[in-house]
Amino acid sequence: MVVATTQSQDIQELISSITDALHKEHLTTVARQINLLKPAQLLKIFERLSHQRRAIVYRLLDKDLALRVFEGLSPVLQSDLVHALQEHDTTDLFNQLAPDDRVWLLDELPATVASRLLRGLDDDEREETSTLLGYPADSIGRRMSPQFVTLRPWHTAAEGLDRVQRRLDTVENVYYLPVIDSGRRVVGAVSLRQLLGADDAQLVETLMEPTMTAEVSEDEEVVARRTARRGQFAVSIVDHEERLVGIFTLDDAVRILEFEESEDVSRQGGVEPLRRPYLSTPVSRLVRSRFTWLLVLAIGATLTVQVMAVFEETLEAVSVLALFVPLLIGIGGNTGNQAATTVTRALALDDIQPRDILRVFTRELRTGFMLGVALGALGFLIAWAFFALNVGVVIGLTLLAICTVAACVGGVMPTIASAIRVDPAVFSNPFISTFVDATGLIIYFVIARAILQI
C-alpha cells in the first residue's frame, strides 16, 4: 500500500511538472522528461491528461517509445489520439499494430476514418485485418491473432526452432506453437521452452501436449474466462470444420475480462461504463453516463410513491408504521442486491446456466426464508419492546416475507436476463431495489391491515 501510494504521488508530480511546462510552452523540457520514462509510467500519465495535452505530449515521444505507448493504451484512448494526430502519423501507427489490435481500434473509430486507415495497409495486412472484421461482433474471431507459427508432428525440435527463427519478425507470438496435421486440424501444442530444452532430433509429436481449442464464432467473454480459468498461455481458434485459423493469448483474455468486469460493476451501480480512465473522461461524458439511469430509476421510484399514496389512510391510523418504512425498504433492497450480485457473478463464471433457474429460485427461496426468520425474530423483539406486541408481529412477519421475496427476485432476474441474451448486470441492483421497494411496501401494509384490523 505504501509503495502504491508513493508511485501514485510520483506520477502526480510528473503530471504537474509536464502540465506546467506545457502551459509555459517549454516543449523541449517536456520532451526531455517524457523520453526518460518507462512505457508503464507514460501510460499512467496519458490516462490522466486531457485530450489536447495527450496529443501534444505524444508527438514529443521518440518513435519507438511512441509505438510501445500507443499499443498499451485502451482502444478508446487510441481512438482519441488518432483523431488528434495528423494523418501521416496515424497511418504509420496503424500499420505497425498487430491485426487483432487494429480491430480493437477500428471498433472505436467512425466508419470513414476506419476505411481510410484500412486503405493505407498493404495487401496482406489489409486481408488479415479484414478477415477478423468479418467475424461477428463480440466473437472470439475478432480478438484472435492470425499471425502464428505452426508445427507438424513429424518435425524435429531443430526444424521447429528454425521455423520460429524465420518467422520472428512477422508473427506476434512464438511462445505457443500449435501442432497441426495435414488437414490443418489441431492435434496438440508445444511451447518454445519445450523446443529449446529438447534434443535436436526429437520429434514434435513426442513433445506436444493436448491443448484447448475454441470455435471462431464463440463469445469472446466465454472463451476469455475459460482461458484464464485454465491458466493456459494461449488457445487455438478453429473454424466450424475444426481447422486452425488463429490463436488467442492470455494477455488478450485478461484485457477482455477487465473490460467486462468494469462494464458489469458500472451497470450494477446504475451508470453506463465509461470505457476510459476516469480522469481522461470529459465531464459531459460523466453526466451522460449517469443521467439516463437516474431518469429511469426516478420513474421507477414513482411506484413507491404510488404505494405510499394508496396506503395513506393506513399510515394515518397507525402512525408508528411510518417509522419502520426506511428499515424495511433498506433490508429488502440489500437482500435483493446480495442475491443479484451473487447470481450475476455465478453466471459470469459459468457456475450456473439459464436452465438452472429453478434451482436458483429454490436456493434463494430457502436462503431468503432463513434470513427472514433471523431478521424477523430480531425485528419482532425490538418492535415489541419499544411499541406493542401487535406492531412487533407486523414487523417480524414483514421482514420474513420481504427477505424471501427479495432474495427470489434478486436471484431469478439475472438468470432470466441471461436466458434472453441481455446483460444480467442491466437487471441488477438499481432495478431490483426499485422493484423490491414497491413490493415490500405492499407486503408491509397488507400485513399491517390484516393484523391491526385497520
Largest β sheet strand count, sense and barrel closure: 3 strands, mixed
**Amino- and carboxy-terminal Cα gap:** 58 Å
The number of distinct structural domains comes to: 3
Q: How many beta strands in the DSSP annotation?
A: 5
Radius of gyration: 29 Å
Morphology call: globular
- Mean pLDDT across all residues, rounded? 83
For this entry, what is the oligomeric state of its chains? single chain
Summarize the helix and strand pattern as letters. HHHHHHHHHHHEEHHEHEEHHHHHHH
Which class of the largest domain in CATH terms? Mainly Alpha
The CATH superfamily of the largest domain turns out to be SLC41 divalent cation transporters, integral membrane domain
Structural class: mainly alpha
| Major β-sheet strand ordering | 3-4-5
Please, could you describe this protein's structure?
The protein has 454 residues and is mostly helical. The protein folds into three domains: 2-136, MgtE N-terminal domain-like (MgtE N-terminal fold, Alpha Horseshoe), CATH 1.25.60.10; 157-263, Roll (CBS-domain), CATH 3.10.580.10; 282-452, Orthogonal Bundle (Tetracycline Repressor, domain 2), CATH 1.10.357. Helix content is 66%, strand content 6%. The protein contains 21 helices and five strands. It has helices spanning 2-23, 27-34, 39-48, 51-59, 63-72, 75-84, 87-96, 99-106, 111-119, 123-133, 157-167, 192-197, 204-207, 220-230, 250-268, 283-310, 312-317, 325-348, 357-386, 389-419, 429-452, and strands spanning 176-180, 186-191, 213-215, 234-238, 244-249. The strands form two sheets. A three-stranded mixed β-sheet has the order 3-4-5. A hairpin with a 5-residue loop joins strand 4 (234-238) and strand 5. Helix 3 (39-48) crosses helix 5, helix 18 runs parallel beside helix 20 and helix 20 (389-419) packs antiparallel against helix 21 (429-452). The model is unreliable at 1-5 (pLDDT under 50).
